[in-house]
Amino acid sequence: MSAHDGSRVEVLSVAGHEVAVTHPDKPYFAAGARHSKLDVVRYYLAVADGALRGIRDRPLVLKRFVNGAHAPAFYQKRAPPKLPPWLRTVTLSFPSGRTAEELVVDDAAGLAFIVNLGCIELHPHPVRAGDLEHPDELRVDLDPGPGVTWDDVRRVTLEVRALLDELGLVGWPKTSGSRGMHVNVRIEPRFGFDDVRRAALALSRAVERRVPKLATSKWWKEERHGVFIDYNQNAKDRTTCSAYSVRPTADARVSTPLTWDEVAACDPADFTLGTVPERWRTLGDPHAGIDRAVGSLDKLLELALADEAAGIGDAPWPPHFRKMPNEGARVAPSRKKGTGVKRERMPLVTIANSPDKAAALAGLERWKSRHPEAAALLAVDDVLVDAMRGRSSTWTRVRVNLRHVPLELRPAEEKPDPDDDPTRVWREAVAAHPELRPRRVRPKP
User: Fold this and answer.
1) Helix 48-55 crosses helix 37-46 at what angle (to 10 degrees)?
2) Which of 4, 20, 95, 237 is 20 to 30 Å from the Cα of 141, by its Cα?
């Protein structure tokens, strides 16, 4: 079949519906593994039951890689204007007070439909369509810093399991599809987002106390070491990739559900778009029972209360949230002023900003070639590569911490190369006209 422009269209019969896959031969992975758009659609149909277990009846943020995994993606919160009659939407509110009709996918046909839009990854909210203010999932996101080994990630993951067991909660581990690990926990949908985030923060701090050399709950990268347990992934309007999501890596790696027995010896490189369907056929879905293992947050919230009683206040929120009552100054320690506490100011310099990660890293290499003496003194964790997320787009920011470079050898900060921050125009407009800044509106009880 051909489209109006003469390009080929593959029409699939899925779950009683016809789904058109446009440009089916378009390369979606071309750097290492080579897979077309149609290959990605067929992968998701092969593991549809498992993929749907993570997204069914949930509003979805569409992270669209319309030019394939090797090109920049953009986030689309609002559902496309022209939808098949068998797809539905729900109205979701955001911390800014805005609302949007977000897509809900309930079957394999809907799954194929969004992959055709370029959604290589799946990004569901942790709520069901029938109750958008009370999450039914706590998400533990283990994010290793530079130089952290996969063995350390696995050790922290097992420590998370031990804590959850003590609290009477069941965790379901999966590889992130990148360098980290996720543990999802089904919970009773009777707590709001703020309480679920409080529980996640308490868990993060508890694990940090158990393995302080391996794990951290510190939000600012300049304070972190080891594996960061990202409690803010449980704040409202934050999403993470769900089970069986394909990630935009050269080998088309997959965020793959595991049994706990697999965690200690697993290798994330084993789980790719090419290997996971066979794993599915032979082993089934290790997370098949996740919806039957629903637990309570009460004990985690008791830990949160104990921290607060001990004088441990709230931790920083994501930057687009309004300032919270018990939150400290939302500024990196290296930029704090007038605290009365003498502390070393971290000598951070920004090297590159670009929607193209490869271009940003190329800028880092150019900086190193210009300043070889300083570059030779950098530790692994002195190079900070941040995946930045704006209102609808992502970009990579590269910074360098010169703490190990003597003053006389420290290069002066230069204009980033490249310097393409997609949010700059918006931030400059808000700075000139503060009334443009969105205000967070709390939902009515």
Assistant:
1) 80
2) 95
Note every long-range contact of 378-384, with CB atoms under 8 Å and residues 24 or more positions apart, other chains counting. 378/404, 378/405, 379/147, 379/404, 380/146, 380/147, 381/145, 381/146, 381/147, 381/225, 383/146, 384/146, 384/221, 384/222, 384/348
Written as six digits, the tokens of 267 are 């290798």
Domain that holds residue 239: 132-243+287-345
Same domain? 29 vs 170: no
Query: Domain holding 157: CATH number?
Result: 3.90.920.10
Output the pTM of the full model.
0.80
* Rounded-to-integer distance, Cα 327 and Cα 232, Å: 13
Q: Tens digit of pLDDT for each residue in 427-436?
A: 666 666 665 5
Is residue 304 domain-shared with residue 422, that is, in the same domain? no
Asked whether 93 and 435 are in contact (CB, 8 A), the reply is no
Q: Helix, strand or coil for residue 80?
A: coil
> Which token pair is 134?
């009370």
| CA nearest neighbour of 236 among 64, 394, 75, 99 | 99
Half-sphere exposure of 354 (CA within 13 A, CB side): 16
- CA nearest to 235, candidates 138, 302, 128: 138
Largest CA distance in the chain: 71
Domain boundary among 320, 345, 370: 345
pLDDT of residue 428: 67
